[in-house]
Amino acid sequence: MAVHKLDTKIYFGQKAFIDKGGKLLVLRDPRCVVNDQTGIDLPGGKYRWGKDLETELKREVKEETGLEIEIGRPFHVWTYYGLKARKGSVSHSVVVGYLCKYNSGKVKLSNEHDKYEWVDKKSYANWKDKTQDFKALEEYFKQKGRLAQLVKATRL
After folding, report:
1. Of all helices (H) and strands (E), which one includes residue 5?
2. Residue-wise over 17-46: b if at least 16 C-beta within 10 A, else e?
3. Which ranges in the chain belong to alpha helices (H)?
4. Does some domain include residue 107?
5. Is residue 122 part of a domain?
6. pLDDT (tens digit, 9 = 90+) per residue, 22-62?
7. Which of 25, 39, 60, 108 has the fewest Cβ atoms surrounding its Cβ within 10 A?
């Protein structure tokens, strides 16, 4: 019996757009392959069913970077389709990116990432690739002025 495409499993993920002094944290996950390229990643991960959304995103950020953050409002939604999971299977994920503010800590990468950089409007393009994460990052910097007002209005 074939599985109908509307009955397939999807994952929900969360990513943190962490602002620290006008710069945003980006990571590189050498095991994350999209369109046959090793690419950019943002702190966050899959949501664990039944858990609090904010608690889960803070946990992921702490595990991956060692940082403490404040979470603001959702900023951007995107999907990964055909993402090669770490165990070799293909998955479909829906991801929500949140505007976040750096609170404390020094970046200490987990074994999931091998590089990081705090980027700004001029330097983020150095991470350009064809991933949805980069497209979300690009959207962040296109809207940065308007987003700064949103962050201020929501009093992260």
Report:
1. none
2. bbbeeebbbbbbbeebebeeeebbbbbbbe
3. 53-65, 132-142, 144-154
4. yes
5. yes
6. 999 999 888 765 555 557 899 999 888 899 999 999 999 99
7. 108
Look at residue 1 and tell me if it is in a domain.
no
Q: Report how many helices (DSSP H) and strands (DSSP E) the chain contains, helices first.
A: 3, 7
Contact at 8 Å (CB) between 110 and 59?
A: no
Answer whether 0.90 is exceeded by the pTM: no
Count structural domains, the chain. 1
Is pLDDT above 60 for 3? Answer: no
Question: How confident is the model at residue 121, as a pLDDT?
Answer: 92
What's the token pair of residue 59?
């946990």
pLDDT at 153: 61
Query: Token pair 């009093």 is at which residue?
Result: 155
pLDDT tens sequence across 105-133: 999 999 999 899 999 999 998 888 888 88
Residue 3 lies in a domain: no
CB atoms within 10 A of CB 87: 6
CATH label of the domain that carries residue 138: 3.90.79.10
